[in-house]
Write a structure and sequence with these properties.
With 129 residues, the protein is an all-alpha fold. It has one domain (8-128). The protein is built from 4 helices and no strands. Helix 2 packs antiparallel against helix 3 (58-112) and helix 3 (58-112) crosses helix 4. The chain is elongated, with a radius of gyration of 28 Å. The N and C termini lie far apart (77 Å). The mean pLDDT is 89.
Amino acid sequence: MVLAADYPFLEILGSMILFFAWVAWFWVLISIISDLFRRHDVSGWGKALWMLFVIVVPFLGVLVYLIAQGPHMAERNLEHAKAQQAQFDSYVRDVAAGPSGEIANAKKLLDAGTISEAEFESIKQKALA
């Protein structure tokens, strides 16, 4: 009968650490590749050279990219997150306004004299339809 002694605890722990390092490595690699392809300040040839460097000499390529572009990666991620948040907020405002928002805007235009009563009624009917 084979017991657990064939695979001792320290080897299990070492395997877990190695697996975690492997997953973390791929996480960093994917982060670098996504950052590289999101950049607008690097030409296609520059991106191709970075990719070649990261693929041919992976450890050195990733370290050099992180050292050279690390702070800029964080800035680009922050800008991307802000742009996504602004787009989401705009979408929510547009959807939340719905028909009542259209009618309220039309009422403001009517009160300002920009549109006539007939145009207001037309906008109101379209919004409620």
